[in-house]
Automatic annotation (TrEMBL):
Domain of life: Bacteria
InterPro entries, sorted: ClpP/crotonase-like_dom_sf, Enoyl-CoA_hydra/iso, Enoyl-CoA_hydra_C
Family according to the record: Belongs to the enoyl-CoA hydratase/isomerase family.
GO MF annotation, one: enoyl-CoA hydratase activity
E.C. numbers: 4.2.1.17
This protein's UniProt keywords: Lyase
Species in which this protein is naturally found: Alloyangia mangrovi
Protein name: Enoyl-CoA hydratase
Family matches, as NCBIfam families: PRK08150.1 (NF006013)
One of the protein's GO biological processes: fatty acid beta-oxidation
Length: 257
């Protein structure tokens, strides 16, 4: 068994891959080993895979930093460590595959940072969203200040971290931490349904949705609108744009590349 296989399994079914975090004795805690396994999984997926479903075994998504592996680092090493996590989270968000998180149980600390780097999030009733770094004497380092801060707003994130507040699935839906709140056992079936739907979209449309919208949100209004025009112009030159229009006019389902 490779080191990666201790942390993660990969199943591929056509255009959809399912990555399952399997270190159940640690509630799938975030660690350098899991980060390396995630990176390896994404870079070795077949080219035909368009959508990834990310989930956790044993009743938990990811319980945050594995404190048993936490070591004292110099400021220099701490920056490098955090930036490596950023690099892998950026790869998940912008690497070209759409990722759906099917979540239950703990989505805590680094687990929430991981979920926030994915594009569609589904939560079951057992989900707990939390950023408990203040109670551990540490600070977020995997991208939460940007990704979770953008979802919640800085003011609410400050309160969440100061108090260690826990949010459930329904609160998460209200706040934007999850896009769907479903009954127990329904996250994976919905993830598969949505994955099939997304995989059936025109590939360049998916690509620009993932690549452009978050970046446009970082821009000024005028820069964002100009970038939107460039994206629209590029996407409409693809064969799929012509197929989508023809399918609409002919009242049939489109058949994209």
């Amino acid at each position: 068994m490779s080191d990666h296989a201790k942390y993660l399994t990969t199943e591929v079914d056509g255009q959809i891959a399912t990555l399952t975090m399997i270190r159940t004795d640690k509630r799938n805690a975030m660690s350098d080993g899991l980060i390396a396994a995630l990176e390896n999984a994404y870079v070795t997926l077949p080219k035909d895979v368009r959508v990834v479903i990310l989930t956790g075994a044993g009743g938990h998504f990811c319980s945050g930093l594995d404190l048993s592996e936490h070591v004292s680092r110099s400021a220099e090493d701490g920056v490098y460590h955090s930036r490596n996590w950023h690099r892998v989270m950026e790869m998940i968000q912008f690497g070209g595959k759409v990722t759906i998180s099917a979540m239950e149980g703990a989505v805590i600390g680094g687990g929430l940072e991981l979920a926030a780097s994915t594009h569609v999030r589904i939560a079951e009733p057992s989900v707990i969203f939390q950023l408990p770094e203040g109670r551990r004497g540490i600070f977020v380092g995997g991208g939460a200040s940007v990704r979770v801060g953008r979802i919640l707003g800085a003011d609410r994130m400050v309160e969440m971290m100061l108090t260690g507040r826990k949010y459930g699935a329904e609160d998460g839906l209200r706040l934007g931490l999850t896009h769907y709140s479903v009954e127990a056992g329904e996250a994976l079936p919905l993830a598969r349904k949505l994955a099939e739907q997304i995989a059936g979209n025109a590939p360049m449309s998916n690509y620009f949705m993932v690549q452009a919208l978050s970046r446009i949100n970082d821009m000024s209004r005028s820069d964002g609108l100009f970038t939107e025009s460039l994206c629209a112009a590029l996407v409409q030159t693809t064969p799929d744009a012509e197929e989508g229009l023809n399918a609409f006019l002919e009242k049939r389902a489109p058949v994209f590349r």
